[in-house]
Amino acid sequence: MKILVVGATGLVGSEVCSRLREAGHAVRALVRRTSDPAKRQALEDRGVELIYGDLKDRASLVPACEDIDAVISTASSTFSRQPGDGIDSVDAEGQLSLVAAAREAQVSHFVFVSFRNNPNNQFPLTKAKRAVERALIESGMPYTILQASYFMEVWLSPALGFDIANRKVRLLGDGTAPVSYVSYHDVAHAAAGVIDQPLARNAVIEFGGPDALSQRDVIRMVETAGGGPIATESVSEADLEAQRQGATDPMQQSFCGLMLQCARGDAMNSARSRELLPFARTSVHQFIAAQVAPVGPSHV
Q1: pTM, entire model
Q2: Which residue of 174, 182, 193, 263 is 20 to 30 Å from 199, comparing CA positions?
Q3: Which string of DSSP letters, residue by residue, matches 137-181?
Q4: 37-45 and 11-22 helices cross at what angle (nearest 10)?
Q5: Is the Cβ–Cβ distance between 21 and 27 less than 8 Å?
Q6: Close Cβ partners of 42 (under 8 Å, ≥ 6 residues apart)
Q7: How far is 221 from 215, CA to CA, in rounded Å?
């Protein structure tokens, strides 16, 4: 198959390209001329065809979709922002333009990486994702929507206050709600894998890791693995809600909304995804074990 990957220089998209090439598929990547040259070169080194365009430029999406069998879109303005990027311009209007271009090109399968809906916690990114999901379902194209849980490499990292190396963690809420933390490597594996899985067509698949763990569960795991005692502080749900209400930028509102949703929990039933995509998922324990050096007496 010939597959267009949108978001190909990103965390998930670059790995999707690698997995598709390893599986023998021809891959075209939509990239921007302002993208990191090293990332573009890495794609070309894997045998990926580059086509220049931008989700914000509707006209550039038409040639990108020509002669394409399937589209996989992992793009979002949340991880990588350039001038003019935003939730409205990229995650909403840009993705909707891509769905329209793919439909006009009679693409036979569209895979969209999204995240699960929580009706009680709505924010701009949620609304954008749901709008694209609805457009896909109504497009008449075969589709697969992967609703991924929280990436452990991001949400259990110093950038989000989970600083294992310095033994400090900022809890979201009281830290007791379980979350099905998932590795972005596994999300990439799934996005590439559904291309060859007929049963994944016209399906919305919740995709999480093998275990639902609370933030406090993960802290205990770090301490047991030899990471030493962890000092914690917390941001209450009320404070997170106040931050969201006070935010004026859609990205800030969405980030506060994501933190609040994490605080309230995101435990998934992964039975359906394991049935369709029966590969071993990375556990939080494996992720933590790779980072923690046991603390013990000095031998110097």
Answers
A1: 0.93
A2: 182
A3: HHSSS-EEEEEE--BHHHHTSGGGTEETTTTEEEEETTS-S-B--
A4: 10
A5: yes
A6: 14
A7: 10
Residue 175 has a CB neighbour count (10 Å cut-off) of 17
Q: What is the pLDDT of residues 37-86, one digit of tens each?
A: 999 999 999 999 999 999 999 999 999 999 999 999 999 988 766 777 89
Cα separations in angstroms, 186 against 60, 71, 198, 204, 283? 30, 18, 19, 17, 10
**CA 153 to CA 291: how far, in whole Å?**
11
User: Among candidates 5, 17, 73, which has minimal Cα distance to 46?
Assistant: 17
Cα gap 131→146, rounded to integer Å = 15
Q: Helices 250-264 and 237-246 sit at what angle, rounded to 10 degrees? A: 160
* Furthest-apart CA atoms within the chain: distance in Å: 68
Classify 85 as helix, strand or coil: coil
The Cα 145–Cα 239 span in angstroms is: 32
Q: Is the pLDDT of residue 196 over 50?
A: yes
